[in-house]
Specification:
2 copies of one chain form a homodimer. The termini of chain A are far apart. Helix content of chain A is 43%, strand content 15%. Chain A has 10 helices and 9 strands. Chain A is of the alpha/beta class and 288 residues long. The first copy, chain A, has helices at residues 26-36, 55-72, 86-94, 102-114, 131-146, 171-182, 193-198, 219-229, 238-255, 267-277, and strands spanning 14-20, 43-49, 77-80, 98-101, 161-165, 186-190, 212-216, 259-261, 282-283. In chain A, the strands form 2 sheets. A 4-stranded parallel β-sheet of chain A has the order 2-1-3-4, with helices on both faces. In chain A, strands 6-5-7-8 form a 4-stranded parallel β-sheet, with helices on both faces. The first copy, chain A, folds into 2 domains: 14-114, Rossmann fold; 131-277, Rossmann fold. At the A-B interface, helix 1, strand 2, helix 4, helix 5 and helix 6 of A face helix 1, strand 2, helix 4, helix 5 and helix 6 of B. Chains A, B: ADP binds at residues 165-172. Chains A, B: Its EC number is 2.7.11.33, 2.7.4.28. Chains A, B: Bifunctional serine/threonine kinase and phosphorylase involved in the regulation of the phosphoenolpyruvate synthase (PEPS) by catalyzing its phosphorylation/dephosphorylation. Chains A, B: This is Putative phosphoenolpyruvate synthase regulatory protein.
């Protein structure tokens, strides 16, 4: 094949991305996903490299990344949360990649702002850290599991949030995300045809109205989701889904319950909205 | 009170920190927690400011932060994931704080590396994005809930990970974290005295040995955790906890099952270790 001198060199449409960390690599991955989401149209193959916590491992990680770069014919992209110091130096010395370093960019300026030196200690981000706070988070997960789908009314007064909505509107994953990410005790309670017929909220919810938040969903999407579980059922039929969604919204409107549609929102977006609407956006316990 | 000219000005020991974002603020919070974890000994009061997605809101957020700074007598620290553009400009114009901007630091250099301009689009990080991938994640959460605590053996062959361990060793929160964060189908299965007496793994696990990972725990910690649920029970007694932990470890050793102690590890650390040990550290589906 003759090469044409006027031809633009082909721009790679897929890049390999590594998350390199001395601990879990969760921060590196979150950061990378946020930044890469700004570049539409490219494909990324992602590798996690957690627990790169010795110089030997730092060198081995760098060499492995170099190999992948050679195979790909284009240098990999690395998001590194190695703390500045010998681990990061060793890694950078050997690594032939485009390296984005979280701590190099931010820790220095912050040392000057805070007027104290940083610890240069590895593995801090996702350690247990404050045991009391960590225990609260695990307690929140256990609470949320015990109060999933209206399983029990016992202890409902301890909830930080009570999610309501028709079956399969997204209450369970959202509750679990609230507990896991924010340490929030999130009960959830289904709104069922019996409630609509009675024209009243489930009686158990009367005393926690200020903590209730509703999830709605488009009837079409609800019918799809229910249909995966129970194909061709009345439960999943579009007519029934339309009826339930409409009645649930009518009830929430009447009771002054705020709600949003989960149809095209992620559990992260739903959760952040709930915290904002219920004004749970400060965490005074989150000091270290 | 007379001031002493030789006295060092008092360094504030508490700082107020804001997470400012045009969407969920989850990335900003993760970034902030990672960076601040490098500064031991200070206390932080943290506020989330999600959905700062209009210029009006950007200005209001900045003014609110300034107010807090005045009250505190020291300027707040802001971790911002506002995308470069008019939102960020408006915010920076009004805000009198120490602002750390994620995108300003990394997106420019990455544009040059990738050879494409960034999208400057707001709210991308935690959107549903790839619907198929998001659905897989929700499916993983549902799978994990259905396969919690050995509830069913049906579909165990579909698990990516099967966690085993004695009751209250941390299997449930870890399984849920694996599902939520990584979209991994994580079943979990208790090891109970009947298994130890029989001297064999639960029969349901015979066919998924390559996916099994074990959690152990110190008997003392286990006894504390169980004691909260069932005080003064044989179940929670230190003798029984010692017996169960020892037998479980003996069984895992004999069966060649890798395990770690959850005693002083967070669910994030346990999860990252499991992925590394079971070699599930690449996600080929994670392209956008």
């Amino acid at each position: 094949m003759n090469s044409n001198v006027n031809e633009t060199p082909e721009k790679p449409t897929q890049r390999t991305v590594f998350f390199v960390s001395d601990a879990t690599a969760i921060t590196a991955e979150t950061l990378a996903n946020a930044v890469l989401a700004q570049f539409h149209g490219l494909k990324y193959l992602r590798y996690r490299m957690p627990f790169v916590n010795t110089e030997e491992k730092a060198k081995a990680a760098a060499l492995r990344i170099n190999e992948v770069g050679k195979e790909n014919g284009v240098r990999p992209i690395v998001f590194s949360t190695l703390v500045a110091g010998s681990l990061a130096s060793t890694f950078n010395e050997y690594c032939n990649a485009f390296v984005i370093e979280l701590f190099r960019s931010f820790v220095g300026p912050l040392e000057r702002e805070l007027g104290v030196p940083s610890d240069h200690s590895v593995g801090k981000s996702h350690e247990i850290g404050d045991q009391e706070r960590y225990n609260r988070r695990i307690d929140a997960i256990n609470y949320t599991l015990a109060h999933d789908d209206g399983q029990t009314n016992k202890g409902l007064e301890d909830a930080d949030v009570v999610l309501v909505g028709v079956s399969r509107s997204g209450k369970t994953p959202t509750s679990l995300y609230l507990a896991m990410q924010y340490g929030i005790k999130a009960a959830n309670y289904p709104l069922i045809p019996e409630d609509f017929e009675r024209g009243e909220l489930p009686p158990a919810l009367e005393n926690c109205k200020d903590k209730i938040f509703g999830l709605s969903i488009s009837p079409k999407r609800l019918s799809e989701i229910r249909g995966e579980r129970r194909p061709n059922s009345k439960y999943a039929s579009i007519e029934n889904c339309e009826y339930e969604v409409e009645e649930a919204q009518r009830m929430m409107d009447r009771e002054g319950i705020k709600y949003l549609s989960s149809t095209s929102k992620s559990i992260e977006e739903i959760s952040a909205t709930i915290l904002l609407e219920l004004k749970i956006n400060i965490d005074p316990h989150m000091s270290m």
